[in-house]
UniProtKB/TrEMBL annotation:
Keywords: Phosphoprotein, Transcription, Transcription regulation. The modification 4-aspartylphosphate is found at residue 59. Signal peptide: none annotated. Residues 9-121 form the Response regulatory domain. InterPro entries: Bact_response_regulator, CheY-like_superfamily, Sig_transdc_resp-reg_receiver. It comes from Methylobacterium ajmalii. The keyword Transcription regulation applies. Pfam families: Response_reg. This is Response regulator.
Length: 140
């Protein structure tokens, strides 16, 4: 008897319900198990207490005390090797992103997130920027 194939678990933190469903559907179609969280607090709880977690996909701008930037920073403090992909319709400054993370600008082409996730969950080298626009350079 064969063991079932373990699907990588990806937490999706997105406050927009339609965007969350679209992201989760793309990940599920690509073979991932998407754990959807409608806010940063719920996502942070899963990161802290969930047994399996292979990556975090987070919207940058979410209401409340835990936005995507804070979520990613806290998630990395608990799970230092956790791949992080930021999603946003607005550019963010690279200095606010956790090291080794990726940024995908919304809206993005269907399939682009799945390609990016395959690279980051398999330990591949990924460009910092997966979207069409770069994060703003650091300013002094």
């Amino acid at each position: 008897m064969h063991e079932p194939v373990r699907r990588p678990v990806v937490v999706v933190a997105e406050d927009d319900p339609i965007a969350m469903r679209v992201v989760a559907a793309e990940l599920e179609a690509a073979g991932y198990q998407a754990v959807t969280c409608s806010n940063g607090i719920t996502a942070l709880e899963y990161v802290a207490f969930g047994e399996r977690l292979d990556a975090l996909v987070t919207d940058v701008h979410m209401p409340g005390s835990v936005d995507g930037l804070f979520l990613a920073t806290e998630a990395r403090s608990m799970r230092p090797r956790l791949p992080v992909v930021y999603l946003s319709g607005r550019a963010i400054e690279a200095r606010h992103m956790v090291p080794g993370s990726c940024f995908l600008e919304k809206p993005y082409e269907v399939g682009r997130l799945a390609v990016l996730m395959r690279a980051v969950t398999r330990g591949g080298v990924v460009s910092l920027i997966a979207g069409t626009r770069s994060p703003r350079p650091e300013t002094d």
